[in-house]
C-alpha cells in the first residue's frame, strides 16, 4: 500500500510553515506591510527618563504606482509626535519640523538619526531598551498604519551625536 496524504492536510502543513517562517526571527528584521507601503524596521533609541524627547526611525518603501505622503504620527506614550529633519549647517546639527514627507511611487524614504526622524515629545514613560512601543503612521492615501517600534539600547546605532540637536526641545 502506498503512503497517502490527504491533499488538504498537506496544504494546512504548508500554511503553518509559512506563518511560522514569517513571524519568527529577530527584531531587526521586522517589517509591516499595508497596501503598497512597507514600513521597515521601526526602531527608537532608549531614553533616560522622560525629560527629553525620543527619536524613532524606520524606512518607508512604496511599491505602488502612486506617490503617498506621511502627514503625521501618533504614539500612546507621547503627547505628540512630530516629523523632523536633521541637517548640518555651519558645522552644527540642527533640526526642523517638516509638515509632510513624500514617498514617491516605487521609491523609498529612509529615516535615520542624521536625517528624517519621528520625534516623540512629552514622553509619559521612558523608552526602555528591549521593549516595543506602538506607533501609528498617518498617510494621505494609505491612511493609518500602526507598527511596533523596537527600542534599542542607547548608543546602539550611530552613537548619540545625531541627537544633540534635540536638547533644546
Ligand atoms: Cu527631532
Describe this structure in words.
The structure is a single chain. This protein has about 170 residues and is mainly beta. It has a single domain (about 30-169), classed as Immunoglobulin-like (Sandwich), CATH 2.60.40. It is about 10% helix and about 45% strand. It is built from one helix and eleven strands; from the N terminus they run αβββββββββββ. Strands 1, 2, 3, 4, 5, 6, 7, 8, 9, 10 and 11 form an eleven-stranded mixed sheet that branches. A hairpin with a 3-residue loop joins β10 (about 130-140) and β11. It is globular. The termini are far apart.
Helix-strand layout with pairing:
Elements: H1 7-23, E1 31-34, E2 37-45, E3 54-62, E4 68-74, E5 78-89, E6 92-97, E7 101-103, E8 108-110, E9 116-123, E10 132-139, E11 143-152
Parallel strand pairs: 2-11
Antiparallel strand pairs: 1-2, 2-3, 3-8, 3-9, 4-7, 4-10, 5-6, 5-9, 10-11
Bound molecules: copper (II) ion.
Most strands sheet: 11 strands, mixed
How many strand segments?
11
Q: In CATH terms, what is the architecture? A: Sandwich
Write down the oligomeric state.
Answer: single chain
| Poorly predicted sequence stretches spanning 5 or more consecutive residues | 13-27, 158-169
Strand coverage percent:
over 45%
Distance between the termini: 75 Å
Let me know the CATH homologous superfamily. PCu(A)C copper chaperone
Q: How many domains?
A: 1
Q: What do the pLDDT scores average to?
A: 83
Bound molecules: copper (II) ion
Structural class: mainly beta
What's the number of helices?
1
